[in-house]
Design goal:
Blueprint lengths: L2 E8 L2 E8 L2 E8 L10 E10 L4 E5 L6 E4 L16 E2 L13 H5 L14 H4 L5 E8 L8 E3 L4 E2 L3 E4 L5 E4 L5 H14 L5 E4 L8 H24 L4 E4 L4 H9 L4 E6 L2 H14 L7 E3 L6 H4 L2 H8 L3 E3 L5 E6 L3 E7 L9 H23 L3 E6 L6 H15 L6 E3 L7 E6 L6 H5 L15 H18 L5 E6 L1 H7 L4 H11 L2 E6 L9 E4 L1
Parallel strand pairs: 1-15, 7-12, 12-13, 15-16, 19-20, 23-24
Antiparallel strand pairs: 1-2, 2-3, 4-5, 4-8, 4-14, 5-6, 8-9, 10-11, 11-13, 17-18, 18-19, 20-22, 21-22, 23-25
């Protein structure tokens, strides 16, 4: 089985699974009320300029103000020309594009000021209205990130009305086809505007490209007209919903079929295909099975696996994936695998299997930002090189932009992956009310000694009380009367009070009450 797109709709939730060879490679979820904002264009109002950070907060109507870096402010203030021939063609639903190619080449972070660029306080003033596009969704406590560089994706082209630039996807490798596409775009594009030619554009006729181009230019004209009549903050252009974005960005000739289990959504996709890709309409099917579609295709099991901290490898080794606010750490362990040859060969085999699974998990979980891979130590440099090359090959399959440094002497790989959306685990879960997101709770023994100290405090507050009472979880009560009973008796003797312990099933293990009457 090749590549498939599965669309499951349940109430307000829509889930889209991208399958590669019967394996879930990407999962995207839209629950209506918290759908993504990336790609939306707003008329925003500058609410605060931060010279010390060379950034500004912009009110676009969301719960939190959006963040605009000085390096993301484009042609209305700066010369936005960029004549690099190659483009990072990102066909994924996050619509990310490498608009900061020159910044990346200079080794500067995205959004950083370019050489000779004016300071943020010389470009923006508080209260100013500005047209911006969301480049990153709000993540955690951070507001959305916006840019004044607008990109409007179509089926075959990406329109950049604010940048005089033509880019051809690196994945189109035939020189003759690249020249044909460049010549047509150069002759047909509006003056001062630019386009990125997407991978699916290869072999398409000029008439097809012109239709896509006209649609995108007309969309930009509507945005400009709306900006003159609306008052900030206001939406000017909302990108398609999740399913239609997937159709536009990921449904191409290499996809075997798309299966939708909701009749209404199926009709919506069919209508969309008539406009964007009528030749692919026959590949869209309505699922009619009695069993839930994701169960039938084995997707639910993969989703469960994608939210687990421990991921088992076929060899018997396993990964431990820990996500923190600052970075994600992935630890590789040999586990049950003992091998049959030398320790070095066993280690090499586990690491080779691990890097493939790691990249799969990064894609599936939408993990972004700083990532540290703790591989099993290898003595031979040639083995470290072999594992790193395997990692690089797997990363080529990832549509998100990645950067990995070679394996260090400590067996660590430092890498980054473009983060645009909330990762899958955080999206599907919430902090545990028991441990408050720490991942652990205090031990019963720790609670016992906290109880002893609180008994001492209560005895000084209630000098006349002859009896002190303790309410605890049954497991803590068992330890007070078991392993810690000698200490319990010593505390009772030292305080010269009778201590009554009550085991209450409804109490949390970490909670207790000490009081007197």
């Amino acid at each position: 089985m090749g590549t498939e797109i599965l669309v499951n709709s349940t109430g307000k939730e829509t889930r889209v699974a991208l399958m590669e060879g019967s394996q879930l490679s990407e999962l995207h979820i839209d629950r209506g009320v918290d759908r993504g904002y990336v790609g939306n264009v707003y008329l925003g109002k500058v609410v605060r300029v931060l010279p010390g950070m060379q950034a500004a907060f912009v009110d676009v109507g969301m719960e939190r103000a959006a963040f605009l870096y000085v390096g993301d402010i484009y042609p209305q203030f700066l010369d936005g020309k960029n004549h690099d021939d190659d483009a990072d063609d990102d066909d994924g639903p996050d619509r990310g594009l490498d608009e900061d190619a020159t910044v990346a080449e200079e080794g500067l972070p995205r959004g950083a000021p370019r050489p000779g660029q004016p300071a943020i306080q010389d470009l923006l003033t508080e209260g100013q209205e500005i047209v911006v596009q969301v480049a990153k969704d709000p993540i955690g406590t951070k507001g959305a990130r916006v840019t004044t560089h607008i990109t409007l994706p179509g089926r075959y082209l990406v329109f950049m009305p604010t940048v005089d630039h033509v880019g051809i996807s690196r994945r189109i490798d035939r020189d003759r086809e690249r020249r044909r596409l460049r010549d047509f775009i150069e002759k047909s594009r509006p003056k001062g505007a630019g386009f990125i030619v997407r991978t699916v554009c290869a072999t398409q006729t000029n008439a097809t490209l012109k239709t896509d181009m006209n649609y995108l230019v007309a969309t930009w004209e509507k945005i400009q007209a709306a900006a003159t009549t609306k008052k900030a903050p206001a939406p000017l252009h909302l990108d398609h919903g999740l399913v239609l974005r997937i159709v536009r960005d990921a449904f191409h000739e290499d996809v075997d079929r798309m299966v939708v289990d909701n009749p209404k959504l199926f009709e919506e996709v069919q209508e969309f295909m008539v406009e964007f890709s009528p030749e692919l309409k026959e590949k869209v099917h309505l699922y009619r099975g009695a069993e839930p579609m994701f169960d039938n295709f084995g997707v639910e099991d993969e989703i469960t696996r994608a939210t687990s901290r421990r991921v088992w490898l076929k060899s018997g080794g396993y990964l431990v994936i820990d996500q923190t606010e600052a970075l994600t750490a992935i630890d590789v362990n040999s586990g049950k695998f003992v091998g049959t040859a030398s320790l070095e060969e066993t280690t090499l085999r586990v690491n080779m299997e691990a890097v493939k699974e790691i990249v799969y998990q990064l894609r599936l979980r939408n993990i972004g930002g700083i990532i540290i891979l703790d591989l099993i130590d290898m003595d031979k440099e040639q083995n470290r090189d072999k594992v790193f090359r395997a990692l690089e090959e797997e990363l080529k399959k990832d549509r998100a932009r990645t950067n990995a440094l070679k394996i260090s002497e400590l067996g660590l790989v430092q890498m980054t992956r473009k983060r645009v959306q909330e990762d899958l685990v955080r999206y599907l879960s919430e902090p545990c009310p028991t441990c408050e997101g720490r991942g652990n709770i205090k031990s019963r023994q720790t609670i016992c000694y906290e109880v002893f100290r609180e008994l001492q405090r209560e005895s000084t507050r209630s000098l006349a009380a002859a009896t002190l009472y303790v309410n605890v979880h049954p497991s803590v009560a068992d330890m007070l009367y078991g392993e810690e009973f000698s200490v319990f008796e010593a505390v009772e003797a030292r305080l010269a009070r009778k201590i009554v312990v009550r085991a209450l099933q409804h109490m949390h293990q970490e909670k207790f009450e000490v009081y007197s009457r």
